[in-house]
Amino acid sequence: MDETRTPQPSGPSLATPQSPSTVGSSPGIQSGSGRRSKVAKSKNRSVACKPCRKRKVKCSGGHPCPNCAQAGYADECVYNPRDRKVRISQQYIDSLVRENERLAARSTSAIPEPPATIQDEEDARNPLLEDRPWFLHVNSLDMPAHIGEAADTAFATKFRQSLSSRQVNHILRTQYYPDDLLLSLSYAECPWPSPSRARFLVTAALRHVTPCFYMINEKDILNKLSLFSRDPTTLDISSTYKLWSLFALGELYTSRGYGREMIRFPGVNYFAQATRTLSVPSERPRIDSVETRLLLSVYYFALNRRHSAGLCASSAIRISTVLGMHLNIAESDYDSPAVRQHRIRIWWTAYICDRMWTTKTGQPVTIEEDRIEVELPSDERLSEAERASLGNTAVLKCSIELARLSARTINALYSRRKLSMPFSHRVQNILRDLRNWSQNLPPDLCITSDSEGLTSQTPSVLYLHLSFNQCIILATRPILLRTFQMFKRAAGDQRRFQTSMPPAVRGLAETCMQCARHSYRLLSASWIDGSFATFDYFNTQYLFSATSILAISSVLPSSQQQEDRDSFETAVHLLEQLRDSGSFAAKDYCAHLSAVKENLAEYEASLVSTELTRHGADQSANGLTGMTTGEMALSDPFILDFLAQPDLDVSFIDPSIYDGQLADPNWPMTPDLVG
Questions:
Q1: What is one process in the GO biological process aspect for this record (predicted)?
Q2: Number of H helices, E strands in the chain
């Protein structure tokens, strides 16, 4: 009977296995056009099994085929796999290439660490971390305040505790814009700026924010602003909140100071209006909600409300996942490639903010790497005008990878999870990945080591390298602090101090100091040319981080010790100027630096041996002098040797070797509010 003429039941049915000679045969295929029928026949030509092919007889198919069943070869009746050639579109190939690039860019850190298997748990612990999380009891709070050890202020406290033989309390952050005043301003009326003022503020915000973060389509928002100037009824509520956010950022970045009244803080009235969008979450959110929250998170930092900024960025991620922005979407679902790329770039900017913000507080990320499937940004099929409005793709892709490495640094080095890898090996892996990142930078995003490299950088390049230096500092400053503790323990025995440090550890400490020096030089050059915004939180934070490292390097023996002390004093002076201009972040950081200077003075006064003073210090160093970038610091021979070592000597950073003499001071649990 002809199998193709057998009546088929209507509706769905379970598929049954078929022989290679009949697979693909169905009434639907044979009843189609002549072309489809021809293709179907060519696809399903009978294939001979191996015994029939060997005997050169016709095979009628089946498992086993009749010939093999009759000859007793049923077990040997198998068919060779077929490799069919099919036609596919170039667009499909391009999508596969982009998907491969995205998967290749994803770090292996997305795979969870296995449980601890090493025998000595001390080897696995970051020297900065105590056995218990750090909580600070404060009378004004109903719960103890959690202090993340990855924060720059926490490291400053750790250094002060290492300097002093007295009880040293952490300085709790109190310099931020208060909740009640911000809430009252959100209910107050705020006049819309004039058309010329509005365009000025939006342009200023875009010029300062978009080079570093793609948070909004510049052309689109300027068009909406122009339409609103002609007809106020054309602006929807989502665009209104977005413009309030841009007005706030524009006024923030164009102001040099303000009076003593907090209500006059630059842009805060506009910002308070924009925060109304946070009051009622939308059940069907739009991408505008993501953009507005990203803009608000940047302004929250200017108010020194770091937790609020993190919550805003985390909320942007959550809304993005509701919209499915973390997943790939077909090009056919959008009218134009530019709209699709806008969606992709907004997602990755939210990803960058979520991860980079966590490096400032030590909080966990909102979404894990293995949940992200969306492709990386691309310029394919975009016109020149569309590429210009969507920002620099190379900068965005480099920022994505750096954000991934930054989050991995926090997760690998500042976590109390039981990890299978010793701390020094984790540092080694982080630095190896950071070095690969720097080596793969496009030439136009690199910074040279000459003086011109300090003054001719665009905001995006400057931010990239400051963030890169900060990531190296986060990875290496625990080693630097342990180096200082060993220096203090040497108590005047210079030879003992030099011989007690393995070369790789000495190179790690020097790398940390070189990155701090480079960040300080970049920021001081930015200050000199007038591009250092008074209320820019990120530059202020990077300056404080570098200053804390310079404070340590100013007491360690090196050929740049005196220069580091001078740079430390100058950096403190710059932060004090920012504090006097009204920067909340600078007020917070200056309180820590004042305490550091006090403890430094006490420490230096206690030194008896002239060999440990700045003027009598050993002038040995690694040879990294002059203008050294973070990339150059990772190319130092000691660091290259460290990165290549399969087995590392971790005894130097093992806290147990100090027998309690230099054990990490207990984090203060005090009811006192200092600062």
A1: positive regulation of transcription by RNA polymerase II
A2: 27, 2
Q: What is d(CA 392, CA 253) in angstroms, rounded to the nearest whole number?
A: 21
Residues 41-93 have pLDDT tens digits of 444 445 788 888 878 788 888 878 888 888 877 778 888 776 667 777 777 77
Cα 666 to Cα 302: distance, rounded to the nearest angstrom: 32
Q: Within 13 Å and on the Cβ side, how many CA atoms surround 76?
A: 12
DSSP state of 135: E
Nearest partner of 642 among 424, 406, 472, 471, judged by Cα: 424
Strand partners of residue 84: none
Angle at 180 between CA 179 and CA 183, to 5 degrees: 85
Going by the DSSP 8-state scheme, the letter that residue 664 receives in this structure is P
Q: How far apart are CA 336 and CA 351, in angstroms?
A: 24
Asked if residue 331 lies in contact with residue 322, where contact means CB atoms within 8 angstroms, the answer is no
Cα–Cα separations (whole angstroms), residue 145 to 85, 128, 172, 545, 672:
64, 18, 9, 22, 12
One-letter amino acid at 346 equals I
| Residue 507 Cα distances to 168, 532, 638, angstroms | 29, 31, 5
Please choose, from the candidates 163, 172, 217, 226, the residue with its C-alpha nearest in 3D space to the C-alpha of residue 196.
226
In which element (H, E) is residue 401 found? helix 393-413
- CB proximity list for 5: less than 8 A, separation 6 or greater: none
DSSP state of 49: B
Q: What is the 3-state secondary structure (H, E, C) of 154-171?
A: HHHHHHHHHHCCCCCCCC
Tell me the C-alpha to C-alpha distance, in Å, between residue 65 and each of 61, 81, 251. 5, 16, 82
Nearest Cα residue to 332 out of 87, 103, 92, 97: 92
Residue 456: predicted pLDDT: 64
Regions in the chain scoring below 70 on pLDDT? 1-46, 82-84, 102-135, 138-141, 449-456, 491-494, 608-675
Contact yes or no for 340/324 (Cβ under 8 A): no
What digits encode the pLDDT tens for the residues 293-319?
A: 999 999 999 999 999 999 999 999 999
